[in-house]
Design a protein that fits this description.
271 residues, 4 strands, 8% strand
């Protein structure tokens, strides 16, 4: 079989031309389109990956912010709850305190009313008792009692402590007028002389005296000079006793703190 080399060469040439033409006008555009498509797909994928990463970042930030918000909300809720509980407790304590104060005031008012009523009754009783006692002592003041009172007053003068004696001596020495001796009854000459001699001996000087009667001094005598006074009176015992009873009623002292009975009264009562 003979080979037609012209035909073979022509076919090869035609094939090569066809291949070139196909590559030039068909394959290359297709390859370029494929490359472009691959680039677009790669870009789209890259863009999607970037968006996905951004979305993941935003999701992470959102979760972090959400968790932070949840923590802040829980903290604010706990704080508000604690403040509400503290305020509730404060109001409750104030209410209890106000109720306690009101109760104490009411109790104190009731006690004051009771003390006031008791005091009124007891003071009225005291006034009546001591008024009767003073009247009885005033009515019983006779010659024997008066002489005894003068003797007791003279004894009281001789028993003055050093400080009282010093103060009284200064008052007597600085006085521009005679010292005043006041008594609930008129002193006899002998009683005046006894008091005068006692003062002269006590202060080792001639003491100038003047005497007055003062019926308001229930069975008592007092020496007054330049603002200083030395006194003795049964009324003083009554006043001291009345004060002691008032202090006992006030709860300041007990009944044992009352002044002891005066020996003169006991002697008078025994006679």
């Amino acid at each position: 079989m003979l080979i037609d080399w012209f035909t073979v060469i022509a076919q090869v040439t035609n094939f090569l031309v066809l291949v070139w033409l196909m590559k030039r006008f068909l394959y290359q555009p297709i390859l370029d389109a494929i490359d472009a498509r691959e680039k677009r797909i790669a870009a789209t994928l890259a863009n999607a990956a970037a968006q996905q990463a951004e979305a993941a970042t935003e999701r992470h930030e959102f979760q972090h912010k959400n968790e932070e918000f949840a923590r802040q909300r829980a903290a604010l809720f706990n704080k508000a709850t604690q403040e509400a509980q503290a305020e509730h407790q404060r109001l409750l304590d104030e209410a209890r305190q106000d109720a306690r104060v009101l109760l104490l005031k009411r109790q104190e008012t009731l006690r004051d009313d009771a003390r006031r009523l008791n005091r009124t009754i007891l003071q009225r009783t005291q006034q009546e008792v001591f008024a009767i006692a003073r009247k009885v002592l005033g009515d019983l003041a006779g010659t024997t009692l008066e002489e005894r009172l003068s003797a007791v007053f003279t004894k009281r003068l001789r028993q003055l402590d050093d400080q009282t004696k010093s103060v009284l001596a200064a008052a007597l020495n600085s006085a521009t007028t005679p010292a005043l001796v006041r008594s609930a009854f008129d002193l006899s000459a002998a009683q005046r002389a006894t008091i005068q001699n006692a003062l002269n001996e006590i202060f080792e000087a001639e003491i100038s005296l003047r005497f007055e009667s003062a019926p308001e001094l229930i069975s008592g005598i007092e020496l007054v000079s330049n603002g200083q006074k030395v006194a003795w009176s049964i009324a003083d015992y009554l006043t001291a006793m009345e004060k002691g009873i008032s202090e006992v009623l006030d709860g300041k002292e007990d009944a044992d703190a009352l002044p002891p009975p005066d020996p003169l009264l006991e002697e008078r009562r025994g006679s």
